[in-house]
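#data-curation
PF: Archiving a pair of folding outputs for the training set. Convention for this channel: one message per protein, sequence first, structure tokens after, nothing in between. First:
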Amino acid sequence: MSRIESYHKMMQAASRFQYNIALILEAKALEAVRSSQWICGHLSSAHFANHGDQVKKSLEVHDQMIEVIESMTKMEIALAKHLHILLGGSEAGGTDPANGDGGNYYS
């Protein structure tokens, strides 16, 4: 397999990865909207002693979704960094094709 074919396969895999992440984030956004609607419809101030308790309960519901979104954002940043190295390595100081050094891929 040539280097170009390898790069092409890597780009296809990255594209599928990005697509799957987009699907997950879309599902999480829908889940957040549904949770928000449920909270607004069912958790009124009459159910809580004070406003602070009401806010705490709302945050508990959304905490898990926020963690998932933060984790996926970190994954996206790492993927973008690797794609940047792959696509623009020589411009960004990665590889030097003249002398064949590998550059600093992990900076």
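PF: Second:
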Amino acid sequence: MHIGPGLMGIPLPVPSTHTHKSRLVLPTFTDGLQHSQLTHPHPVIAVMADKPNMMEITSFDKTKLKKTQTQEKNPLPTKEAIEQERRESSS
């Protein structure tokens, strides 16, 4: 591949006259790695997701959780509100 003149003097690659054949090399799973270990950013997490640690689950302490109050953003109307709206729209 040659370098030719480009916009504002920045060289741009120019394809050469001959062609190159590329080979795509794919990983094989014969080396003992699982697919999830190769695609997950951290292999330990990938293993834990497949097989959860039951000791951690049984010894989990719910009292250490933060207390929160949950409120609906758009609560559904009550039956009374629906009936009142129907009466107002029909009169």
